[in-house]
Each structure stands twice: as structure tokens, then as C-alpha cells.
Specification:
Elements lengths: L1 H22 L12 H23 L6 H12 L3 E2 H8 L3 H13 L3 E5 L7 E5 L1 H20 L6 H17 L2
Antiparallel strand pairs: 1-3, 2-3
Helix pairs in contact: 1-2
Amino acid sequence: MHVAAYVWLEAVLAFHAFCYFCCHTNYRMEEEPYSMYSFLLDRTARRVKQYAQRRFKELGFNVTVDQWLILRHLYDNDDLNQKELAELVFKDTPTLTRIIDLLCDKGLTKRKLHPDDRRSFNICLTAQGRARVEQMKPKVKEVRLKAWEGLSERDFSQFKRILNTIYVNLK
């Protein structure tokens, strides 16, 4: 369930922008019976991120949820260029640049010249960054699993199937 919960969190956060747009339309429920789904997804995505951020602060992580996603992706796929990393975390270039700057200032990541393109950089974890991810992983797992209390594997499978179908429908 660990990987599945991680995928779920990313799917909900990635879908957040679309849901925000949809839930702020002028449709009334009786005119558009499915308009409620975007409100529910947006509300849930916000709650998940707020809960995680609150717990990160309480646990003294000194990183945001967005910073964690970048650290985790670099941990799993070290030495990514900024474009690859942006695609993995669903961030635009300016936002990602700002987050990477903060992580570099904290000593958790560093930029290295791309071996084939001197105009480009690869981003990688420092030893301190790798240690921080290893320290945070068990607690982050607990934070993610809090949302699934009282829900079964079958519930999660159905939820994942529905989210994936919506995602594919909107290609």
C-alpha cells in the first residue's frame, strides 16, 4: 500500500488545479449532476495537503510537501534535469526553480552541469538530502496512510480506477 498511497497523493495533487477550476463554475447541481465530483476532489486534495503540511511541521521536517515530492523523486531517480523533474512533480519551470533554490539553500540538493550540455543542469541529492529522505520516509508513510483509515484495499482500487479513468478521459 506504501507505493499505492504515494501514487494516490500525487494523483490528487496533480488533479487539484483542474478541480479548482471546475468547482468554481456557475453550474448548479441540478443542471450538471457530475459537477460535485470536482468540488469533492478539490476539497479532499486541499485537506490532504494541509494535513500533510501540518504534520510535517509538527514532526520538525523543515520541508514543505512540495519540497518532499522533489526530494523523494530525486531519491528514486537521482540526477534528473529540471524538465524531467518538472514532469514528475507536475510543476511549471519557475515554481520548480524556486523550490530547487530553497532545497539547495538547505543543503539537501545541488545542481551539477549536465555532462552533454553545458547550458543545462542536473539536480541531485546531497548526502544530507539522501539522509533526510531516509529519515522522513517512515513518518511520511504514516502521514499518507492516515487518509486511508477505515478504508479497504478494494476501496483504494476503485478510487484509483476512477481517478485514472477521469485522467485518461481528459487527455
